[in-house]
Amino acid sequence: MNEHAVDPTDQPDQPDQTEQADQDWWARGRHPVNVGQLVMGLAFLGLVTIWAVLAADALDGDALRWLLPVPWLVAGAAGLLATTVGAARRR
């Protein structure tokens, strides 16, 4: 018998459910959102923007009291929105 013959009962490993789901997302042109990275990226972007505004002397130091919490609130709201939309789509 030929030692290179293919055994019909030998099937290649089937991808598991998570790999299949990831391939489906990429096939549709989308990928799952990492909420932690989204929140921290928005917070960093907001803090850099505040730093740039203050460095350019567009605002004085007194504005810092109400300006610093804004990036955290926006990033948190975006995280909640991404979590909610993601959970609704999975249903």
Features:
single chain; 91 residues; mainly alpha
Overview of the structural elements:
The protein has 91 residues and is mainly α. It contains 4 helices and no strands. It has helices at 17-27, 35-55, 64-67, 69-90. The longest helix has 22 residues, at 69-90.
In brief, what are we looking at here?
The protein has 91 residues and is mainly α. It contains four helices and no strands.
Question: Which helices and strands appear, and what pairs or packs with what?
Answer:
Layout: H1 17-27, H2 35-55, H3 64-67, H4 69-90
Helix pairs in contact: 2-4
- Counted by DSSP, the helix tally is 4
What is the tally of beta strands? Answer: 0
Radius of gyration: 24 Å
Report how far apart the termini are: 53 Å
What percentage of amino acids are in beta strands?
Answer: under 5%
Q: What can be said about the biggest beta sheet?
A: none
Uncertain parts: none
Structural class: mainly alpha
Shape type: elongated
Mean pLDDT: 80
Order of helices and strands: HHHH
Portion in helices: 55-70%
